[in-house]
Amino acid sequence: MPSSEIVLLLLNDCASHLGDAVEVQVRDNGAGIPQEIMDKLFQPFFTTKPTGEGTGLGLSISYEIVTAQHGGAITVDSRLGEFTKFAVRLPRRSNVAAAIAAETDVGS
């Protein structure tokens, strides 16, 4: 993306309460992500940056934390030339929090 291009991030009303989960969405008005790249977004070490400028671990690590550690989900919606939207959905009470609470209750 050229440095003079302005990308708008829409953050108004980005959090939704979905009963037992909360979802946060971030959407831009950028160039979008081609389908062949979307299929690789969460793979470790995948990057579109030149060699030496990125590790390709950011989205992979984020995906692991959200899904495996908190039982949530990350989804991506993108249309070329229009937008990209990431949605992160987390349970209000993760398995980790429930396990900690259970350990605390045992000692009571």
Please characterize this protein's 3D structure:
This protein is of the alpha+beta class. The protein has one domain (9-106): 2-Layer Sandwich (Heat Shock Protein 90), CATH 3.30.565.10. The protein is 26% helix and 27% strand. The protein has three helices and five strands. Strands 1, 2, 3, 4 and 5 form a five-stranded antiparallel beta sheet that branches.
Count of the domains = 1
Corresponding CATH architecture: 2-Layer Sandwich
| CATH class category label | Alpha Beta
Distance between the termini: 57 Å
Shape: flat
Proportion of beta-strand residues: 25-35%
Rg computed from alpha carbons, rounded to a whole number of angstroms: 17 Å
Could you give a short account of the major beta sheet?
A: 5 strands, antiparallel
Which range best describes the helical content: under 10%, 10-25%, 25-40%, 40-55%, 55-70% or over 70%? 25-40%
Mean pLDDT level? 82
Specify the structural class.
alpha+beta
Number of strands: 5
The number of helical elements comes to: 3
Low-confidence stretches: none
| Helix/strand order | EEEHHEEH
For this structure, the CATH topology is: Heat Shock Protein 90
CATH homologous superfamily label: Histidine kinase-like ATPase, C-terminal domain
Brief summary of the model shown:
With 108 residues, the protein is α+β, with helices and mostly antiparallel strands. It has one domain: Heat Shock Protein 90. 26% of the residues lie in helices and 27% in strands.
